[in-house]
């Protein structure tokens, strides 16, 4: 290694090494089919929904909102969330570029993991329906879930890699980017519609290292910014 680096001293390679990519599922590997605003309203009621939305410019954490409700009320809320998720599953589609990106990562022997706040049955269905498997794949049964960095740190330890050798890719600033940043990983925000360009996101605490509007762009991003080495 020493010989190699000294022979390359005139052309140093400043690119960080990348050994693994961790994906969010809903809205990242799959086309968004869950109507989240409708789900939040159904769970919280319109008045409470509007109040919480005004207080949380970067988005509502519905699981957190219902955490301290009475068991009875909470059970009903989980039921409503499950109904919305089930409807979403019926219409599940893979995100354009996802299969190609996974094929590219496999060709480079780069690890692929998944972290979702959805349930494990949804992950199983995703794996079955599209024939692409992520490992580890952590669902909300793994506590604490995103945006806590714990699931990402867990994946790094299973892979035996450092967090800064991993990139977290997701469509949520408050969950995916925050989880990635707090774990010490690189982060890439998938913003298909440019909604995060809006001024309300200018002063958020967690900013992504990269932003793309399609998974198709990630191939070039990884090639140009990283040294891919398993
Ligand atoms: Mg998502």
From TrEMBL:
The organism sits in which domain of life?
Eukaryota
Sorted alphabetically, which Pfam families does this protein's record hold?
Answer: Hydrolase
InterPro entries listed in its UniProt record: HAD-like_sf (IPR036412), HAD-SF_hydro_IA (IPR006439), HAD_sf (IPR023214)
CC terms in the record's Gene Ontology section: chloroplast
What name does UniProt use for this protein?
Haloacid dehalogenase-like hydrolase domain-containing protein
- What is the source species? Cannabis sativa (Hemp)
């Amino acid at each position: 290694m020493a010989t190699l680096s000294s022979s390359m001293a005139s052309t140093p390679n400043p690119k960080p090494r990348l050994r693994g990519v961790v994906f969010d599922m809903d809205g990242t590997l799959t086309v968004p089919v869950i109507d989240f605003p409708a789900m939040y309203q159904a769970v919280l009621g319109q008045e409470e929904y509007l109040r919480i939305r005004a207080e949380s410019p970067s988005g509502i954490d519905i699981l957190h909102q219902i955490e301290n409700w009475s068991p009875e009320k909470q059970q009903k809320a989980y039921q409503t969330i499950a109904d919305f998720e089930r409807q979403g599953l019926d219409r599940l589609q893979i995100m354009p570029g996802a299969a190609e990106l996974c094929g590219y990562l496999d060709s480079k022997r780069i690890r692929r993991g998944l972290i979702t706040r959805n349930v494990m049955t949804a992950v199983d269905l995703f794996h079955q329906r599209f024939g692409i498997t992520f490992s580890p794949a952590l669902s909300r049964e793994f506590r604490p879930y995103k945006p806590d960095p714990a699931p990402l740190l867990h994946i790094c330890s299973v892979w035996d890699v450092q967090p800064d050798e991993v990139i977290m890719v997701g469509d949520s600033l408050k969950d995916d980017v925050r989880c990635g940043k707090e774990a010490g990983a690189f982060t890439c925000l998938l913003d298909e519609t440019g909604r995060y360009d809006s001024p309300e996101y200018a002063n958020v605490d967690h900013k992504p290292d990269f932003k793309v509007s399609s998974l198709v762009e990630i191939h070039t991003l990884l090639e140009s910014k990283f040294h891919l080495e398993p």
